[in-house]
Design brief:
The chain is of the alpha+beta class and 286 residues long. It has eight helices and twelve strands. The protein has helices spanning 13-30, 38-42, 89-103, 118-127, 162-173, 177-187, 233-247, 262-270, and strands at residues 3-8, 51-56, 59-70, 73-80, 108-114, 130-140, 153-156, 193-200, 203-213, 216-224, 252-258, 273-285. Strands 1-2-3-4-5-12-6-11-10-9-8-7 form a twelve-stranded mixed beta sheet, with helices on both faces. Helix 5 (162-173) packs across helix 6. The relative contact order is 0.16.
Length: 286
Amino acid sequence: MTYEIVAKQTLTAEELAQINELVRLCNEHDGIDLKINPDMLRNRSGKHTEDFLCYADGKLVGFLGLYVFHRKEAEASGMVHPDYRRKGIFSSLQRAAEEACKQREIPSLLFIVQHNSQSGAAYMQQIGATYEHSEHWMDLGEGGRQTCNDTLRIRPETADDYETLIQLNVHGFQMEEQQVREMAEMMASDLNSRTYLVIVEEEAVGKISVSRKDAKAFIYGFCVHPDHQGKGYGRQALAQTIRLIEEEGYKHVSLEVACENSKALGLYESCGFVVKSANDYYRLNL
């Protein structure tokens, strides 16, 4: 059987539907929940080749997508149809993705592997990728929401807040400033997301972002400046954000948190979030 690898800068509605169906089949077969960042797939910039599709007789049997937030790495997620595995398809997709990264001088791939995917973990070992960390996927359950008080407020970002948000990301996540600026530029085109500043006595002490799609909301980019941690601001900011989301009518709220970050995990659990699954991250230097 002949296989064809197609590299894309943007995806058509038909291709997106084919990818979603492939994800559904793989999830059902393997009993997992693959992370493919569907919003990013729908909103590719068209400037770079970031999606790789494998066809067999016109049928989509494999997919790998790249998610580049800054120049030091590209996150990668993909899958192969259960009936077409062990035929070198994912290796071919990987080689195509590696070539695209090298052309952009991106030095490493960070593979997202669903925690329960035995085949995914085995493949990472086979190619010599190094395990880095894991993240819990959490959904908001019932009965755990916190009451809000007037200690702080959250407000939507404005253009004047750009530098403040950059510094909150630098200090809150201990990231290099250049990486933060690259990520901010990339995320600026995401029309489904909005960032809020956490304000205490007119000072911005933290930030939190929310992506909204259909009936679902996803919380991310949440931090409190180190100088203001340990004062309960995180819990109150999260509680106010949840209330805002629910008042807007969103019924499903999710977030991700590093498994090693027990403090953040405890905060989210105290506000009603429940661990649903986990993703493992493996780095492959190119």
